[in-house]
């Protein structure tokens, strides 16, 4: 048994030794194969790197040669430019030398000509003195006396010619005055029509909140469309807080819309049927109020026997304004002024008062013919059997027809007095203050002006100047310059009087 075990162990040892010897031999062969493959791969890599290095060298060499060629080209171009500049400078030097030579020659020539001119001037003065002496001996007066006589004659002739020219200009101005006045009025209308329409054709209706605004508009705008159709106005609903705008040229329609909206908002029921009902009711009430206003006005003024249609038109004046002045109040003022002047002149004050009350009746007529309001008012007065002197006074108060009665100039003057009264016609306070300030600043910009004051509601500008800086003659010129500049650069009503004040004060004290 032991024998077999030893035999097995020995066989195992021999097998292991054989395996290790064989494994060592195989490893040696594989190692040699790997080394041989690695050497071959290293040789291949070496050849590739050498090839790539050669290619890179050739590329860098080509780029360097291209860069060198470009630099050489730039150097050659720079050399050419320098040569051109050098040639140009040489040419300019030659031209400058030539010009200097020409200038020197011209200077010499000018010096010679100056000497000749001086000799000629001396000779002319000598001959002129001889001629003047001969003329003085012939005329029997000195040169100074002759000059004085000649200047006096020329001044008289110039005055005569200037006066004749002024007369011609005045005649031409009279012929062209009407045409020029119309042109000025048309230009003024073009400049101010938009602002006037915006100011006078809109009524603001206040509301408490946006909920009421939505109810006025209605579902899909049906309420506002019904209100516009019933009243004939445009309702403007925008982002303005707590207000909507009623827009129309007819003030009575705007008043109907305002009163109807007021009743609808208070009542709370706003729908198309209710709108039509309220508008009809308001229109009836307003017509009654207009007629009552006309009657009350006639009674207050002591006017009787007037057609009811004219009374109704007088009542409509309450809702019409002229330049911001209520037309009914203006007509009452004109009537009273006419009556006072007629009484002082020994005329019939009732006729004058009646003509004054009706003078602007054409402004509120529902008719719209192609006539000025004065002629339209005359036509209405004739239609309702007013007296001829009243009709003529109405038609002639803007001189659009000939005055044939003594009452016509009374109405014209009374209308002007009522409109010119300070404060009668409204003006936006901000624009009014700005206009006065601009007027003062315009005059303050002139040299020598110390203080400026716009007075008489902007109808007069007082300019105070320093006595040391501005003379009396310069003060007259300054007032004309300021007037011309105001006329060219500013917009103002009527005319502006410019008064330049120059004062010198000498103060001393006796002790």
Question: What would the keywords be for this entry?
Answer:
511 residues; mainly alpha; Ribosomal Protein S8, Chain: A, domain 1; Hypothetical protein af1432; GMP Synthetase, Chain A, domain 3; three-stranded antiparallel beta sheet; three-stranded mixed beta sheet; flat
Structure description:
The chain is mainly alpha-helical and 511 residues long. Among the domains are: 199-287, K Homology domain, type 1 (Ribosomal Protein S8, Chain: A, domain 1, 2-Layer Sandwich), CATH 3.30.1370; 323-420, Hypothetical protein af1432 (Orthogonal Bundle); 430-502, ANL, C-terminal domain (GMP Synthetase, Chain A, domain 3, 2-Layer Sandwich). It is built from 14 helices and eight strands. The strands form three sheets. It has a three-stranded antiparallel sheet with strand order 1-3-2. Strands 6-7-8 form a three-stranded mixed sheet, with helices on one face. The chain has a two-stranded antiparallel ribbon with strand order 4-5. A hairpin with a 6-residue loop joins strand 2 (234-236) and strand 3 (243-247). Helix 4 runs parallel beside helix 6 (272-301), helix 5 (251-267) crosses helix 6 (272-301) and helix 9 packs across helix 12. The radius of gyration is 54 Å and the shape is flat.
């Amino acid at each position: 048994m032991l024998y077999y075990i030893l035999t097995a162990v020995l066989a195992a040892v021999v097998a292991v030794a054989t395996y290790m010897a064989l494994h060592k031999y195989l490893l040696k062969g594989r190692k040699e194969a790997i080394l041989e493959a690695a050497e071959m791969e290293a040789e291949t890599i070496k050849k590739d790197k050498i090839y790539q290095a050669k290619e890179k060298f050739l590329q860098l060499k080509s780029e360097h040669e291209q860069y060198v060629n470009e630099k050489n080209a730039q150097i050659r171009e720079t050399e050419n430019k320098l040569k051109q500049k050098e040639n140009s400078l040489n040419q300019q030097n030659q031209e400058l030398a030539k010009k200097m030579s020409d200038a020197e020659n011209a200077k010499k020539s000018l010096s010679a000509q100056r000497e000749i001119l001086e000799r000629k001037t001396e000779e002319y003065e000598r001959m002129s003195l001889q001629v003047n002496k001969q003329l003085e001996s012939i005329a029997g007066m000195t040169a100074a006396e002759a000059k004085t006589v000649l200047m006096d004659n020329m001044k008289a002739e110039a005055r005569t010619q200037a006066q004749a020219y002024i007369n011609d200009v005045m005649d031409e101005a009279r012929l062209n005055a009407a045409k020029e006045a119309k042109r000025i009025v048309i230009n003024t209308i073009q400049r101010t029509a938009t602002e006037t329409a915006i100011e006078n054709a809109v009524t603001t209706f206040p509301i408490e909140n946006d909920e009421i605004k939505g109810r006025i508009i209605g579902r899909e705008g049906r309420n506002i469309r019904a209100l516009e159709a019933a009243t004939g106005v445009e309702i403007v609903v925008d982002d303005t807080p707590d207000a909507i705008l009623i827009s129309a040229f007819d003030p009575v329609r705007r008043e109907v819309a305002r009163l109807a909206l007021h009743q609808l908002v208070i009542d709370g029921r706003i729908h198309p049927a209710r709108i039509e009902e309220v508008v009809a009711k308001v229109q009836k009430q307003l017509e009654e109020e207009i007629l009552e206003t006309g009657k009350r006005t006639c009674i207050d003024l002591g006017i009787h026997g007037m057609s009811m249609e004219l009374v109704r038109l007088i009542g409509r004046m309450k809702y019409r304004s002229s330049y911001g002045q209520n037309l009914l109040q203006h007509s009452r003022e004109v009537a009273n002024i006419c009556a006072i002047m007629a009484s002082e002149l020994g005329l019939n004050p009732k006729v004058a008062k009646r003509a004054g009350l009706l003078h602007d009746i054409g402004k509120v007529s529902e008719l719209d013919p192609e006539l000025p309001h004065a002629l339209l008012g005359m036509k209405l007065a004739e239609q309702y059997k007013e007296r001829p002197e009243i009709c003529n006074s109405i038609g002639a108060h803007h001189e659009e027809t000939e005055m044939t009665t003594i009452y016509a100039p009374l109405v014209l003057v009374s209308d002007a007095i009522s409109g010119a009264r300070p404060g009668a016609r409204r003006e936006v306070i901000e624009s009014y203050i700005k206009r006065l300030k601009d007027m003062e600043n315009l005059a303050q910009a002139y040299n020598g002006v110390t203080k400026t004051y716009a007075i008489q509601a902007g109808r007069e500008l007082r300019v105070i100047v320093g006595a040391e800086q501005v003379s009396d003659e310069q003060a007259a010129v300054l007032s004309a310059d300021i007037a011309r500049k105001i006329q060219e650069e500013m917009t103002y009503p009527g005319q502006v009087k410019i008064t330049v004040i120059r004062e010198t004060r000498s103060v001393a004290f006796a002790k």
